[in-house]
Design goal:
It contains 15 helices and 18 strands. It has about 450 residues and is of the alpha/beta class. The strands form 5 sheets. A 4-stranded parallel β-sheet has the order 2-1-3-4, sandwiched between helices.
């Protein structure tokens, strides 16, 4: 094997201090080095098999030329670290300027595409790994705002959640000194608990309102004195009344008690709103209805299967069935569980693609997902929707339809879900529904897309 030659290339007339130091350290261990002027890059003789180019800066015409030809390129901090730790130089298909993110696997969420592309490049230049999807090898999540599925995963499994500025700051620092992205000095770049949230308040006394305004900004959020349908994400309201509250409910803005706000700050991260929602007394129970069943032990399967409650013209027979089913489970009386309930659930699950149809959703063209919803047409009002088996651009387009149509999107299956829109088959979702009392509608993407095109909620059976 040919001896490795370190070719030091400076873009500046005055050699970078780290570049000179790296060259001296390399000479101490008898590595073969050469100095080359960037101004003579056309004359640089490089053997792709044994040359390692050491650039003081990952920019400029010379760097771009050799990077485009996939030459092995490193920066002086990378060389110094490897010499210090007696580690081999990284041999990867991209340049490595430093080892600042060595051992770190990062995925992004709520970060614009162009910014994400640049962050990916910097991560690789610092010897980190960028993952498009969330897997168990991911060590850090970079979040532009709170609340996404990846964000929730990070909370659940204790992964650090960082701002995009974390990567940019690491890149700035690693060019002048040896640092690692997990050093304590970078802890200040953790994603604040209200990042991406715009908070408005109502029914809260003046001093507390001023405190909330200050704390919102301090923890990464935006405070709004007025309730804006397009920008506000949360309304802090301790009593379910008032004009702001009524409009916030209509506009699908999160209405939560002020305790949610303070608990988020105390926890140091965003918390699920579900346990803090401010609801009228008649909506505190399951799916917005109080189910009053006296002497439930006397209800037989026939009565249960025919049971129906109506409010605002909507049928809640499924809600009654769910409540009785849960009660039966709790009290150990299987006779309370109607046969029709079991049959309906089994029939509903057939709407999931079979295992050999698991790629079914990808038969729908991307263009079919480009559906415009007329502003103000809340055709999904009251629908609580979970997406199963979607990712990427299709998922983003479906989310926009939900938001525009006035629906509520859930990130996990629970008893509140009214619809599950399925793409590819997700076994854990099928398994959960098989062994639960939940009976949401299970529909494919065509139901949602066609409903959006027609501007009204279509019948689910078809």
């Amino acid at each position: 094997m040919a001896e490795v030659v370190l070719q030091f290339i400076s873009n500046n007339e005055n050699k970078n201090e780290l570049l000179s130091k790296a060259a001296k350290e390399a000479e101490k261990v008898d590595l073969k080095i050469e100095w080359v002027s960037a101004s003579n890059f056309e004359d640089i003789a490089v053997n792709n098999d044994n040359s390692v180019l050491v650039f003081d800066s990952f920019s400029g015409q010379t760097f771009e030329k050799f990077n485009a030809k996939n030459f092995r390129i490193i920066g002086p901090p990378c060389l110094l670290y490897c010499l210090q730790e007696k580690r081999p130089l990284p041999n990867v298909k991209h340049p490595v300027y430093s080892m600042c993110m060595d051992g770190i696997n990062i995925t992004c969420t709520s970060v614009p595409k162009d910014e994400r592309k640049k962050l990916c490049e910097l991560i690789e230049w610092m010897n980190g790994c960028f993952a498009r999807d969330l897997t168990d090898v991911v060590t850090h999540i970079v979040a532009g705002e709170v609340g996404s599925e990846k964000y929730r995963f990070a909370l659940r499994y204790g992964r650090p959640i960082m701002l995009p500025d974390w990567i940019n700051r690491c890149w700035d620092e690693c060019q002048t000194r040896l640092v690692h992205a997990t050093d304590q000095e970078f802890n200040k770049y953790r994603t604040p608990c209200f990042k991406g949230c715009t908070v408005c308040v109502t029914g809260i006394e003046s001093n507390k309102r001023k405190e909330i305004k200050k704390l919102t900004t301090l923890h990464g959020g935006t405070y709004s004195g007025e309730l804006n349908m397009n920008t506000c994400t949360h309304l802090l309201v301790d009593e379910a009344k008032g004009e702001k509250y009524n409009f916030a409910r209509k506009w699908k803005i999160q209405c939560v008690c002020s305790q949610w706000f303070y608990d988020c700050i105390k926890a140091g991260h965003w918390l699920e709103e579900a346990d803090y929602r401010t609801l009228p007394d008649n909506e505190q129970s399951m799916s917005g209805q109080r189910l009053s069943i006296t002497n439930i032990s006397t209800i037989n399967s026939t009565t249960l299967s025919n049971m129906s409650m109506k409010s605002n013209g909507k049928s809640f027979s499924r809600i009654a069935a769910q409540a009785a089913y849960k009660s039966a489970q709790k009290h150990g009386d299987s006779s309370l569980i109607s046969d029709s309930t079991k049959q309906n659930r089994v029939s509903n699950l057939k709407n999931f693609p079979s295992k050999n149809e698991s790629e079914l959703i990808y038969e729908i063209d991307d263009a079919d997902f480009d559906v415009s919803v007329q502003p103000g047409n809340l055709f999904l009002d009251g629908c609580k929707i979970y997406f199963s088996g979607f990712n990427g651009i299709k998922l983003e387009k479906l989310r926009k339809i939900i938001n525009s149509g006035g629906g509520t999107r859930f990130n996990q299956i629970n008893e509140s879900i009214s619809h599950i829109v399925v793409g590819t088959r997700v076994e854990k979702d099928v398994e959960l529904l098989t062994h639960s009392s939940f009976q949401p509608w299970v529909v494919n993407a065509h139901w949602l897309l066609d409903s959006a095109r027609k501007g009204k909620r279509l019948e689910e059976e078809s």
